[in-house]
Amino acid sequence: MGKIKQKAGIRSSLLVTIDYTKHDPLHLYLASHYSTSPFDLILDTIGLQPLYDHSTSYLTRPTSGRQHTYLNIGMLYPPTTFFGFCRTALSLMRITLLSSFLGGGPGGYSLVRTGPSKTRIEKVRRLVEEGKLRVVVDSVWDMGDAMKAYERSMTKHAKGKIVVKIQEVGEGEEEEHCEEGSATGKEKNMSKSLMQENKARWSKRASPGVRFGLKDLVTETKK
Fold it and tell me: What are the sequence ranges of the domains in the chain?
């Protein structure tokens, strides 16, 4: 979270970091500390609905020149069922179509979503090659430790991308034809064992969407 200040023609920046684990709910802390100097723009990368619902206390009102002051690009708990999708759609309709007087949002809200685009992908690729864009990696795991990577993801405290390395197949070699006694076959068997060993434990802890994904992953490993 940052603020840009302009004083005496000198442009200076001040980075303000707030530990959300110590200030829960976060919107109460923002209201008590930033009501007199509200933010011009909030970029929500998580998707915290209460943060927007109470934003009138710490966010400037939208104007004709800047209609969107609250940009949401994240979703903390994506819907995994039909009713979940319906509930999310109704919530978006409420905060974007209804006025605050009728129970809608305070205004200035925009849900930012981008679809697949070759032009955007090429632009991102060039930025990476030029060193202007760097992907932050939290941790790297071997395929045999895939369940540990899931555990890290489920903590929701990863500081970057979680990478699982898939075995590289040599030139002219096809993984599906590997022999059981070879190194490749042993690694496949080890992955099967690990997946099956942790399937029951994770099916109880994970959300419906994650349970569905784990089921598919184990099925694919058995093939």
Answer: 20-111, 117-167
